[in-house]
Specification:
Layout lengths: L3 E4 L2 E4 L1 E2 L1 H18 L5 E5 L5 E5 L1 E5 L3 E7 L13 E9 L3 E6 L5 E2 L15 H18 L4 E7 L3 H5 L4 H4 L1 E2 L10 E2 L4 H17 L4 E5 L2 H9 L8 E3 L4 H10 L4 E7 H8 L13 H12 L3 H8 L4 H11 L2 H20 L4 E8 L3 E5 L3 H10 L3
Parallel strand pairs: 9-11, 14-15, 14-16, 16-17
Antiparallel strand pairs: 1-2, 3-13, 4-5, 6-7, 7-8, 8-11, 10-12, 17-18
Helix pairs in contact: 1-2, 5-7, 8-12, 9-10, 9-12, 10-11
Length: about 375
C-alpha cells in the first residue's frame, strides 16, 4: 500500500495487519467458491477507513472448497510476519452461518485473560468480525443462503511465533491473527501499550493481585541473577512505565513492583514516567541535583554533569563518600512519583540496580511487594 505517516520527521509507509490479510483471503476464497470465477485482486475496507486492493496468491480451486493467500505487508514497521502468506480455505456447510477456525501456524489459547477463550484459535475479535462481515457480504451478492467454514493458516507461523510474545502469553503452536484497525502504523507506541495491557489483563484474570514490572532485558537478567526469581514472573513495560501503572489501576491490582536499571529508574525520580530518550535525557541532571543536596562539591557536580553514563556518576559518588545518601534520596523520589502516578489506588515500589555496581537501592515497600508476588506463586 502507498499510504504514509510522518513520525519524528520521517515519512513512513503504512502496512496492513494479519487480520486484514485473513479477511481479504477469506473474501476472495468465498467469492471464487460461490461464483466459480477466479479472483486475482480483492478489495477490503478496513476499520481504519482505508480501502485495500490486494493481490490474491496461490489460488487452489476444488469442487467444494477454495484456498488462497494474501501476503502480509507491514510497511516500514519491523514486524516479524512481514512477507508471510496468510491463507484462507473456505468451504460450504449445511448449517447456516460463518464458522471460523485456525489451521497450521495459528496459535491456540491456553491461558485465561486473552481476547479469545482457552482452547480457541488465536484469531482475535476484530479479525473475526472482519472475516464474518466480508463473507456475509459475498453471500448476499451471490444469493447464497448456506453456511461457510473458514480455516485460516500461516505455514511458517509456528516458527514466527518464537519471535513474538505468544509463548509468554500462553499461545502455543503459532502466531495470532491480530489488528483492531486493519492497518499497521510503523513503530506504533499504542501497539506496545496494547501488548502490556494484554499481559497484565491475563495476570489479573489468572488471580494475581500483585505484579512484577521491568522495562527490559537488563531487568529480566537482574531479576534472575540478582534476585534469584524466575524472570517469567515479570511483565515487560519497555519505556511505558506510567501506562503500565495506569493499566494496573484499571485492572484493580493491589500492588506493582518495578525492577529496573538506574538509567531508566532515575528518570522516574525526575517525574518522567515514559523513559524514552526522545522525551528527554535528564539522568545526570537528576543525579547531580540529588548529589548536590547530599553535599557533593560544585566541582564534582560539574564533573557529574559532564558524565555520559550513570555508572560514571556512581563512581563519583563513591569517591566522594556520598553514594548511599544520594541513592536513598533518589529512591525516595522514585517512590513519591510512582505513588503519585498510581493515585494511591495501588501499592507501588521499586528496586534499582546497575550492571556494574549491582543493587543500588529500593523504596520502602519494595520487599513487601516482592514477598506478596512470590506468595501468589505458591
Amino acid at each position: 500500500m502507498r499510504e504514509f505517516i510522518v513520525k519524528d520527521g520521517k515519512k513512513l509507509r503504512l502496512g496492513y495487519t494479519t487480520g486484514s490479510c485473513a479477511a481479504a483471503a477469506s473474501k476472495a476464497a468465498a467469492w471464487m467458491l460461490l461464483t466459480g470465477r477466479v479472483k486475482e485482486k480483492i478489495q477490503l475496507d478496513t476499520p481504519k477507513g482505508i480501502t485495500l486492493n490486494l493481490d490474491v496468491e496461490q489460488i487452489s480451486i476444488e469442487e467444494n472448497r477454495v484456498s488462497c493467500a494474501i501476503e502480509k505487508d507491514s510497511g516500514d514497521d519491523p514486524d516479524v510476519t512481514k512477507g508471510s502468506l496468510v491463507f484462507a480455505q473456505v468451504s460450504r456447510t449445511a448449517e447456516p452461518g460463518i464458522f471460523i477456525e485456525g489451521g497450521k501456524g495459528i496459535g491456540r489459547v491456553t491461558k485465561q485473560g486473552l481476547d479469545q477463550p482457552v482452547g480457541a484459535a488465536a484469531i482475535n475479535s476484530v479479525p473475526r468480525q472482519m472475516i464474518r462481515e466480508n463473507l456475509e457480504e459475498v453471500c448476499r451478492l451471490t444469493d447464497y443462503h448456506g453456511g461457510l467454514a473458514v480455516v485460516i493458516s500461516v505455514p511458517n507461523g509456528e516458527q514466527l511465533a518464537r519471535q513474538t510474545f505468544n509463548p509468554r502469553l500462553g499461545i502455543v503452536g503459532g502466531i495470532s491473527i491480530l489488528g483492531t484497525t486493519g492497518i499497521v502504523e510503523p513503530m506504533s507506541e499504542q501497539a506496545l501499550v496494547d501488548t502490556i495491557r494484554l499481559e497484565l489483563r491475563q495476570r489479573r484474570v489468572s488471580g494475581a493481585k500483585h505484579v512484577l514490572l521491568t522495562p527490559g532485558n537488563y531487568g529480566l537478567d537482574y531479576i534472575q541473577k540478582g534476585l534469584g526469581i524466575n524472570p517469567k514472573l515479570a511483565v515487560l513495560t519497555s519505556n511505558f512505565i506510567g501506562d503500565a501503572l495506569d493499566i494496573c489501576k484499571e485492572f484493580a491490582f493491589s500492588g506493582a513492583l518495578l525492577v529496573g536499571h538506574v538509567g531508566k529508574l532515575i528518570k522516574i525520580a525526575g517525574g518522567m514516567l515514559n523513559t524514552h530518550s526522545k522525551y528527554g535525557d535528564c539522568r545526570m541532571e537528576i543525579m547531580a541535583a540529588h548529589a548536590g543536596a547530599a553535599g557533593l562539591s560544585p566541582s564534582s557536580i560539574r564533573e557529574m554533569l559532564e558524565s555520559v553514563t550513570c555508572d560514571d556518576g556512581l563512581r563519583i559518588l563513591q569517591e566522594e563518600g556520598l553514594y548511599e545518601e544520594t541513592l536513598k534520596r533518589i529512591s525516595k523520589q522514585i517512590s513519591s512519583n510512582l505513588e503519585y502516578r498510581s493515585g494511591g489506588k495501588i501499592t507501588t515500589g521499586a528496586i534499582m540496580f546497575s550492571k556494574k555496581y549491582g543493587f543500588l537501592g529500593e523504596t520502602d515497600k519494595a520487599r513487601l511487594l516482592l514477598t506478596r508476588i512470590l506468595e501468589e506463586q505458591l
